[in-house]
Design goal:
Length: 286
């Protein structure tokens, strides 16, 4: 198996265009497991860890642009203030070793419905920055990125350059159900992001449908019904949970039944909305 080690972004894009059978690798926490278990045997590995741009984040016109190779550990320590929903999700990923190697870019590359980055990226309206040598830069909204189980809108000659996301305009929460507290794939997960100025709440459901997805009807319900100056009515929170559960399309598998997942999505949605609402009212009172 060839091992390609571009040192620049342009070299990486050229290698991607010339060797479509080469698997990009960053932290390797998905790729190496798949090779070890013989799930895939790519003709080559395209190691992106030497490309400096991918390991950096910056703020451009007020938007965070996070290089694809920025690890979960760095999201937690460096971006937790600006992107609390993504940082909360990062804290639940694997173990310290996995968080030190694994990346949000790799999570997107794998496009697993259970990936923990996806719900907060959906809720926050993130955009995936993809690029190819011959096609240039393409900006893909997170909600258009996930096409099926482990299938994304990324073209064969494209690489993920960065993730673009606005700093949180309001409270954000992520919550996940697993069979234990660490080193688990989510049974299901949920993220919420409030935007008090726009009077909107974004949502993201994980591991409860063939792809991560937003709960659009639930978002519209909140936009129409919420009084942003008042305490959260319990009946409204319950209805929000029900609408989120209705947006899910889960399966029965070894980790949980479809019925349990649907129920758990409703509970996570109701709880995260409650936590976010407490923060929202607390900030107004402060
Ligand atoms: C023990 C263990 C526990 C785990 N726990 C969790 C968990 O709790 N939650 C969770 O979500 N995941 C978990 N994972 C899965 C994995 O850690 C994550 O999906 C991680 O985000 C992958 O990032 P990476 O940089 O290691 O990706 P890699 O393995 O390097 O790549 C992953 C995929 O993305 C592609 N890719 C990588 N970089 C790019 C790029 N720049 N452009 C295009 N494609 C690219 C690769 O070809 C591959 O298909 C776990 C894995 C292990 C081994």
């Amino acid at each position: 198996m060839d091992f390609l080690r571009p040192a620049t972004w342009q070299e990486a894009l050229s290698a991607r265009a010339d060797r479509p059978g080469a698997a990009p690798v960053q932290g390797g926490t998905d790729v190496m497991v798949e090779i070890n278990f013989d799930v895939r045997r790519p003709e080559a590995l395209l190691d992106l860890t030497r490309v400096p741009e991918l390991g950096r984040w910056e703020v451009v016109d007020g938007v965070y642009r996070i290089g694809a190779n920025v690890t979960y550990a760095r999201v937690i320590t460096e971006l937790g203030g600006a992107l609390p929903g993504l940082a909360q999700a990062a804290r639940t990923v694997g173990s310290p070793q996995i968080r030190n190697r694994g990346t949000v870019g790799g999570n997107l590359g794998a496009a697993s419905p259970a990936g923990d980055s996806h719900p907060p990226l959906l809720a926050a309206g993130a955009v995936v920055e993809a690029e190819s040598r011959d096609g240039g830069v393409r900006l893909i909204p997170a909600e258009e990125f996930y096409l099926g189980v482990k299938r994304s809108a990324l073209r064969p000659d494209e690489l993920i350059r960065a993730i673009r996301v606005r700093p949180a305009p309001g409270p954000q929460y992520f919550s996940k159900v697993g069979t234990r507290n660490a080193m688990v794939i989510a049974v299901c997960s949920f993220a919420i992001a409030l935007d008090p100025a726009a009077r909107r709440a974004g949502t993201g459901i994980g591991s409860a449908a063939p792809t991560p997805r937003r709960a659009l009807e639930a978002e519209e319900f909140l936009a129409a019904e919420l009084d942003w100056d008042a305490p959260l009515p319990p009946a409204l929170a319950r209805r929000f949970g029900e609408l989120c559960a209705r947006a899910a399309d889960p399966i029965d598998d070894v980790r949980g039944t479809a019925a349990y997942r649907r129920h758990a999505v409703a509970v996570l949605a109701r709880r995260t909305l409650g936590w976010a609402w407490d923060d929202h009212l607390g900030r107004r009172a402060a």
